[in-house]
Amino acid sequence: MRIALVGAGSIAAWHLDGLRAAGCPAAVVASRNFARARDVAARHGVPEAVAEWRALPTRPDLDAAIIATPDATHAEVARAFLAARKPVLVQKPLATSVSEASALLDAARAACVPLEVAFMHRHFPEVAAAAALLRDGAIGRILAARLRNATPGPDWDAWFWRAGASGGVAAQIGVHGVDVLRHLIAPVATVSAEAAIRIPERRLRDGTRVAVEVPDHVIAAYRLADGTLAAHEMSWADPGATDRYALDVHGERGTLSLRGPRGALALLRDGAWSTVAVPEEPPGRRQHTLFLKVASGRRPPTGSAEDALAAQRVLEAIAASAARACRVTVAP
Prior knowledge:
The chain is an alpha/beta fold. The chain is 31% helix and 27% strand. It has helices spanning 12-21, 34-44, 74-83, 98-111, 125-135, 169-184, 285-295, 304-324; strands spanning 3-6, 28-30, 48-50, 64-67, 88-91, 115-118, 142-150, 188-196, 201-203, 209-211, 217-224, 229-235, 244-251, 254-260, 263-269, 272-275, 328-329. Strands 16-15-14-13-7-12-11-8-17 form a nine-stranded mixed β-sheet, covered by helices on one side.
């Protein structure tokens, strides 16, 4: 297949490396910053770079697209490819509102075209291994979970810090945690959250100073649909203590730890910790192999777009809970 990547920001390397590892290097990179598109294409061996994406959906030589543009542009770009009956993989979050995300699902169904969402964390090998362990009852009935999504915060582009362009730390990295909880345990049913801007100004790597307009810290307490209680910390001020996320799942017979102090995956049972071996995989291969199968019709859609709509409902519940200082029920 010939795949177009729309967007040449920091996540572009994940998608380009993943496509290559899956045996299908990208055909073209598009970015409004043509110099960046050209540099990214050259670095990853992509034969074509363009500054304007709008001509791509109707090009007969392109079969599908990956959309990795700023959040507020996801819906516009995705709609164009869906209208041209081209399968798309959209970088999370799917959109900036529940109504926008729901409209994209409607558009995909109307066109009978696969719409997938790039929740990369669920495809990490340790998460896949953890899912199998939990399904097999490795720690018994799940009681509670503690999750942390944290990074130092993006310093490569100002849009992350601007209201209307970004949903802040919850939409950017917290949504990964929401999806992992749904993927491993159960959907979020209720939310109690606090959100704040703790660092009011950020300095980008090029020296530009940006006023922060969106929350850079969120603390949320969830009750999941199966009764599990979960605590979720989201921070854009971690200098390196967390590698994307850390998750502990507590059950009646033990604890499962993901990316904790004992490594990528560990189990506590009968009072003793043991490390679980996780296979080495090329970054992104699992996710992009799956997308290529869906886009080519070799397997049905994964349901990640429906999961993304559910995650968008949780993001809106977090914002509502933090604004009103109350517990919010997530719409089913």
